Structure formats: C-alpha cells, structure tokens
Amino acid sequence: EKGGYDHFMLKEIHEEPSAVRDTLTEWDEVLGVVEEIGEVERICFVACGTSYHASLVGKYLFEGLLGIPTDVILASEFRYSAGALNDRTLAIFISQSGETADTLNALRAANSRAKTLAIVNVLGSSATREAQHVLYTRAGPEIGVAATKTYVSQLTVIYMLVAAMGAPELMDRLGRVPEFMERALKDEDGIRELAATCSDVSDFFFIGRGFAYPTALEGALKLKEITYIHGEGYAAGELKHGPLALIDNGVPVVAISPPGPCHDKTLSNVEEVRARGARVIGVGSISDESLRKEADDFIGLDPEVDDVISPLVYIVPLQLLSYHVSVERGLDPDKPKNLAKCVTVE
Ligand code: F6R
C-alpha cells in the first residue's frame, strides 16, 4: 500500500506532480464557480496550519496580480477578528479534511454574511455540504499526518482561481509545475545526505521574502511536526527586528530565494546571518551563483521557476529535508506524536 516507499509521507511527496496534474483538470469547475460567484471586491481566506500557509500564498496572488484586497485569518481567530465581511466579500475556506472544527465554525458564521467557497480534498466532507460553493483538490487520500501533496493541490486550485479571475497567463506556467517538481524530486539523494548532517541540531530557521515567505513558514511547520526540532519561519526582513539575536555559530538557516524582485534583498539577509556564523542552506535557482557562493549547502531548482510559482516547487525539497531528518532521528514521519490528521475539536 505504500507503493514500495518506506513511509506514506515519502510516497505522497513523490505523488505531488500527479496531484498537481489531476487538480489542473478542475479548470472547468473553477471557471463555473467564478461565474456563479460574480463580482468580488474583497477576499478573506480562513484556514488552519498548512492550509493557512496555502492561503497566505493566495494573498500574494490576489493582491499582487489582481489588486483585490485580501485578508488571511486563522480559523481559530475568526470569531475575534473577521469584521469586513459583506455580500461582495468572498470568504474562502481551505481544508484538506473538510472537517476541521475551527474552520467549520468560521464557515457557519460567514455563510450569512458573505459569499463562501470551500476548497477541500475529502469528497462529501462537512465543509462541502455547508459552503455555498465548492472546489475540490484532486490529491487523492493523504495518509501521512503531515500535509504534503494536499498542500500543493490547494495551491494549484488557488492559482487557477486567480487565473480565472483575471490572470490567465498563470495557466501556462502552472502546466509546467509537475515537470519542475519531478526535477526537484530527482535530487533526493543530495537532500538525504544534507539531512544526515543536520539531524542533531536544536533549532532551524527558514527565511524568505514575498512569495517565499509562506514557503518559509510551511518549511518550518513540516520540520517541527515530524522531526520535533524547533523550526521558525520568518520574513527575511524581520530578522533584524529580533530573531537575529538567536543566530549563532552553526545554526542552520534555510534561505529560500527564487529568481525575482526579492532576490537581492534576501541575499543581503543571507550575508547578515552568515556574518553571525549561521550555516546557510540556500534554496534557489540552479544557476544562482551569488546565492551558491554565500551558502554552505545549496539546493538548486529549475531556473525557470520564478518567485510567483515558486511556492509550488520550492516546498518539495523542504518536505524531503524534514522527512529525511525525521528518519535520520529514528522517528516515524507518518505518525507525529500529539497530532491527529483531522482536528474535530476547537
Ligand atoms: C500540517 C497539517 C495541519 C493541517 C491543519 C488543517 O502538516 O496537516 O496543520 O493543515 O490541521 O487541516 P485541514 O486542512 O484538514 O483543515
């Protein structure tokens, strides 16, 4: 049932290219929902955990590409902070399981005040029955507790939604994502070797700017969940506002820096942490000589993956890194302690 892989998580990471391909077949459904929804002046994403990180990417897309003001709210905070809903607001609820209690409660509260759309992986789950509109991620069942292929499928639906609402040029680039992911998966041996050299540290930092910032948060969440190593994701520009005090000799800092307008600024942040002794793990374009030069370790991805589509591709090596660190530490990545696949209590 694990298809020859040692763990479901590893199998599910390797299924990411096909999860994206299958989700792209939902294009007609996306067009249909966009037509039904009609005019939208504001977007409000609501989700938890990894689904929240997918939502954050949505904010960069809707605001950056379409100029639609977008909020992203943690479902557990929704009742304390969702003031701006009205009939021209589209509230988007992202949930792999469609059963997360916090997300369902927020959905119920929003249904009478806004247009609601649920983006869900599990067919027929509660969120699909309660939302006014539904789109499915076509990732197939995910057994590993840590979300992997469902995350990239959620991102795929969000990108399609943005394409359908006014940025059709995204679709060509989305079509190439599975191929970029396949290339990233081929480098697994290098990542396994890297994991073996950093499995006994106590802290890890992940930094990124713009589209790379949600990737930093998601990379850190994967690490915490399955390796029990303390991992923090930061917007690279926030470093000097506090976290830099924690950077010491040998602390791994994963610097996520795809080609794009943020590249040079992130590189200066890399120089700052390096000057304080950090061990820099650069994640960038394979032809990025400047990042490679500043980094102790380097994970190279296809140069055609720019910052806008980077969330879909740059997360792949980070998931693999957490997976291999977990295995290296003798843990079971499929069953992290204290966590459940589906959180049905508040
Ligand atoms: C992390 C993870 C959790 C879920 C969160 C929301 O790997 O799996 O953070 O993303 O519990 O779950 P859903 O998406 O089912 O609402």
Ligands in the model, by name, code or SMILES, are: fructose -6-phosphate
Mean pLDDT: 96
Distance between the termini: 32 Å
Low-confidence stretches: none
Q: Roughly how many Å is the radius of gyration?
A: 19 Å
The helix/strand series, from N terminus to C terminus, equals HHHEHEHEHEHEHHHEHEEHEHEH
- Overall shape: it is globular
Measured as a percent range, the helix fraction is 40-55%
Query: Structural class, from secondary structure content?
Result: alpha/beta
**Proportion of residues in β-strands:** 15-25%
What's the SSE blueprint?
Layout: H1 8-14, H2 16-24, H3 27-37, E1 42-47, H4 49-66, E2 70-74, H5 78-81, E3 89-95, H6 101-110, E4 115-120, H7 126-130, E5 133-136, H8 149-164, H9 170-186, H10 188-197, E6 203-208, H11 212-227, E7 230-235, E8 252-257, H12 263-275, E9 279-285, H13 289-294, E10 297-301, H14 310-328
Parallel strand pairs: 1-2, 1-3, 3-4, 4-5, 6-7, 6-8, 8-9, 9-10
Helix pairs in contact: 2-8, 2-9, 3-8, 4-8, 4-11, 9-14, 10-14, 11-14
Bound molecules: fructose -6-phosphate (F6R).
EC number: 2.6.1.16
Main location: cytoplasm
Domain SIS: 33-176, 194-336
Describe the structure in your own words.
Homodimer. Residues 33-176, 194-336 form the SIS domain. With 346 residues, the protein is an alpha/beta fold. The protein contains 14 helices and 10 strands. It has helices spanning 8-14, 16-24, 27-37, 49-66, 78-81, 101-110, 126-130, 149-164, 170-186, 188-197, 212-227, 263-275, 289-294, 310-328; strands spanning 42-47, 70-74, 89-95, 115-120, 133-136, 203-208, 230-235, 252-257, 279-285, 297-301. Strands 2-1-3-4-5 form a 5-stranded parallel sheet, with helices on both faces. Strand 9, helix 13 (289-294) and strand 10 (297-301) form a beta-alpha-beta unit. The longest helix is centred in the C-terminal third of the chain and has 19 residues, at 310-328. The radius of gyration is 19 Å and the shape is globular. Bound molecules: fructose -6-phosphate. Fructose -6-phosphate is lined by residues 48-51, 95-97, 100, 103, 146-147, 221, 225, 342-343.
